[in-house]
Amino acid sequence: MATEIRVPTLGESVSEATIAQWFKKPGDTVTADEPLVELETDKVTVEVPAPASGTLESISVKEGETVEVGALLGQIAAGAGAAASAPAAAPAEKKAETAPAKAAGNIVDVVTPSAGESVTEAEVGEWSVKVGDVVKADDVLVELETDKAAQEIPAPVAGTVVKIVASTGDTVTPGTLLCQIDASGSAAFAAPAAASAPAPATAPAASGSSMPPAPAASKMLAENNLSADQVAGSGKRGQVLKGDVIAAVASGAASAASAPVSAPRAPVAAQDEAREERVRMTKLRQTIARRLKDAQNTAAMLTTYNEVDMGPVMELRKQYKDLFEKKHGVKLGFMGFFTKAVCHALKEIPAVNAEIDGTDVIFKNFCHIGVAVGTDKGLVVPVVRDADQMSIAEIEQEIGNLGKKARDGKLGMADMTGGTFTISNGGVYGSLMSSPILNAPQSGILGMHKIQDRPMAVNGQVVIRPMMYLALSYDHRIVDGKEAVTFLVRVKESLEDPQRLVLDL
Length: 505
Description:
four-stranded antiparallel sheet; CATH 2.40.50.100; seven-stranded mixed sheet; 505 residues; 31% helix
């Protein structure tokens, strides 16, 4: 009886794929889980494994053709492959091969979890275990890195790691098999040796030379007069995908990327090149770079500035900080005041809390405030949800919790999606003035800066006051200059007269 090979589920937003290349031809012997064909989507490449051992009987779809999820790719004839794969195997060897099948009920697959609606792929980081290691339930196996956050994958059960399928650096999609754990414990002696054999074979595939562009990507490269070395590939083994070309064309990055590859590298002396270090950008850093550049290319971005006397807030903090911390269990910082002031201003100037969707403007009747947090892996923006309905104490507690999760790498997708406005505090690093870049698709971002004593004219006298520059970057397509200036003035007024926050003025 023939076994069908079909297109697997490729992600929530992916409904079709292009046949990139077949690894086998009709008549070839195949074994279960051996890669048969590579599919290319606009986001990722996927290798489809053989569902059973046997002989590849037929191929239904040729390279370069586009297929939908669930479409028939080919068929495997049962029996012949098993006989051909090990005709001279000794009886003892055959028994060893069938042992895992007997213990199949105790083999637990560890697969890539779903990481959120907008996340369709992840990059495999460093493995914390190796084949043969005994693990306990909830032990960390591997870290997956998406374009938004890193996620640790725990062991679902206690047992022995008998197989590691995904290598460090591989790109995987939700549902992709990462490794297998034998929960019976019997594999501690036999399975590790058997499972470790395929490892050397898979390593070269992950670290070998870059693959040619996928068919759809090749067509787009030709249409845009680009070469493959001008586009950074995100597929397996560095393959250039259709999505990579689209992103390069949209951002204009292709022309910029071509310069470092050619002219600037030529005059580098050998001794200088030996002292250089080339490090691959993490997916998080790649996404940060792409999103920031896309924001500049898409929005009509403009920045308006003001300054605020932080004296009243500082006096209030000094007077109540001990009592505040004792009652609420969290320190009274500046972010609670700024978040509350921003929420008040957003209510008055709703355009700053809106976003553009095609030819429509979507006004948000809630305030989900993103708070930019710098980590050793890059900038992340966790979101304080419904901040307009929170007290200053609740805001401080939530920001504290999100900041700790960010530093520990524990942020999930739910923590970083849905923001309507962002606050970035460059002052903690000593920045005196800057122009923040929008966090698309949001229409506004507030930049906080260092508090510095400066001479100010107050009631006809020169006095020294703790001043902070404020910067509001906004999308001029939706926010007018008058609205932007008024918004920043309202934030300034709330901070210089904190009673306004209490009285909702």
